[in-house]
Amino acid sequence: MVLDDFKLDGKVAIVTGCNTGLGQAIAIGLAEAGAHIAGVARRDATETKEAIQALGRQFHLIRLDLLEPDAPRRIVQGAMEAFGQIDILVNNAGIIRRNDALEYTEEDWDAVMNTNLKVLFFLSQEVAKQFLRQGRGGKIINIASMLSFQGGIRIAAYTASKSGVLGITRILANEWAKYGINVNAIAPGYMETNNTLALRQDEKRNAEILSRIPAGRWGKPEDLKGAAVFLASAASNYVHGYAIAVDGGWLAR
Ligand code: NAD
Known about the structure:
Elements: H1 2-5, E1 12-16, H2 21-32, E2 36-41, H3 46-54, E3 59-63, H4 71-83, E4 88-91, H5 106-134, E5 138-143, H6 156-176, E6 181-188, H7 197-201, H8 203-211, H9 225-232, E7 243-246
Parallel strand pairs: 1-2, 1-4, 2-3, 4-5, 5-6, 6-7
The chain binds nicotinamide-adenine-dinucleotide.
């Protein structure tokens, strides 16, 4: 029955940036569908851990900075030691640095590109190798953005990185579909998290943004749960290299 296809009972999901914002909501959503969570964070993720354990699922924290050189290997090792298997990877962690293109620094460029794009690629590579060892495919979900489709303003490296995330999603889908690995993305619209605090506090930008969201409100992290469970589950087994926008209609405008 189709609703059974959405169940994640007994699956193990790695979620990066699981302590807050979209990553926290996605981790909880996957756990609500049955998955155990190997959460990656730089700091404690107590709130996420408690929410997941309250659902009767297990939570294991892999505490590290994704920019540390050996991070991808250590994440896979940590998840394997805790659970003995990996079924789902959610590449959620990301940063944004705002500045005019004329003033944009190399330091900001490198930080954003490394976090949002390089880490995402090499962690996907490491997890895909584990999927191949297990021999039963797997699911990779990349968190893209409206800036995977649009130019934006004052966020040159962010736009470059998120446009890159869409491209990487497609090429990895092309190369790994034959192994039963689904690589897809979720493109969130304008969501209420730390990432958008500066925008929401800017009265003018806030009003401009709200006025072009057909749904008439900012997104909430929980709005991503449905798309995440779909892409993590057997319900999406024939979906490869696609980005689902969860944006209140922003891109349709
Ligand atoms: P957030 O700032 O609340 O959370 C980002 C998470 O990434 C945090 O847990 C942070 O600790 C983690 N992180 C960043 N760099 C890290 C590193 N080097 N090592 C380990 N962890 C690291 O932001 P959010 O809005 O929840 O963003 C989550 C993802 O969604 C990001 O990729 C972001 O670009 C994307 N996104 C957000 C929005 C939005 O409107 N909020 C829209 C589109 C896409």
